[in-house]
Specification:
Layout lengths: L2 E3 L6 E2 L14 E4 L5 H12 L4 E5 L2 E10 L21 H11 L8 E7 L5 E4 L5 E9 L3 E9 L2 E9 L4 E4 L1 H5 L2 E4 L6 E9 L6 H15 L5
Parallel strand pairs: 1-10
Antiparallel strand pairs: 2-3, 3-11, 4-5, 5-6, 6-13, 7-12, 8-11, 8-13, 9-10, 9-12
The structure holds 2-oxoglutaric acid.
Length: 223
């Protein structure tokens, strides 16, 4: 059965419900109000100026549009850019990722801005294997981050309510065992996803090749 958790202003970190059952899988962490209204407005104004491109996976173009910073991995559909340096205006978000994860902020070397216009969502997936911690920061609209894990022939499902200006962490089990997705949005939402790399990850070519093979076998969509 699906369970849902809504916490407006509290941190969620391995919390249990009244019956001692975990509300969300271990490794999930949530912090509300990590940025102010003004910061949100300023950052969204920056995102609106980016040359966002539809997310592409095996020739399939998703409705969401993305722009990536950090040049260790170039997503399909994105041009490899000479200068993919992380701009200064995103550095405060790296600090937030560092705070929520306990990983040094500088470790979040891959940053993706995603625009979900009305009708856009993201399918079930786990992030590519070369990434370690995944941090999401949300802008403009709330959404439900749906989580599912195989349980025999069935799926165990949970859902986390994500407010704008909040951050969530996917680490450990919720990152490695559970899949996540977001249903198509009714209204515009942006997210910034910050990813750290696993120690000793390979070259870009190996990552792209390996990720594609694994993705084709296991995942309906990948990020
Ligand atoms: O928009 C979000 O918060 C989720 C993004 C995501 O799951 C991804 O890009 O892999």
């Amino acid at each position: 059965m699906a369970r849902s958790a809504t916490k407006k202003s509290a941190d969620i970190d391995g919390m249990k419900d009244l019956f001692g059952e975990p509300e969300l899988p271990s490794g999930f962490r949530y912090l509300s109000d990590v940025i102010s209204d003004t910061q949100e407005r300023d950052l969204v104004a920056r995102f609106e100026k980016l040359d966002l491109k539809p997310f592409e996976f095996h020739g399939y173009k998703g409705n969401r549009r993305i722009y990536t910073f950090g040049h260790r991995y170039v997503f399909a559909g994105q041009e490899a850019r000479e200068d993919a340096r992380i701009p200064d205006y995103l550095k405060p978000l790296m600090e937030i990722a560092g705070d929520i994860s306990g990983t040094p902020a500088a470790g979040f070397e891959q940053i993706m801005v995603t625009e979900y216009a009305a009708g856009a969502g993201i399918g079930w997936h786990r992030d590519r294997p070369m990434y370690e911690d995944i941090v999401g920061i949300s802008f403009l609209a709330p959404c439900a981050l749906r989580l599912r894990k195989r349980n025999g022939d069935d799926w165990e499902r949970m859902s986390a309510h994500i407010e704008p200006r909040s951050a969530y962490l996917l680490h450990g089990k919720v990152r490695n065992v559970w899949q996540h997705s977001i249903a198509p949005m009714d209204v515009l939402r942006y997210s910034v996803t910050l990813r750290s790399f696993r120690p000793g990850h390979g070259t870009q070519e190996e990552e792209v090749g390996g990720a594609r093979k694994r993705s084709a076998r296991k995942q309906s969509s990948s990020a």
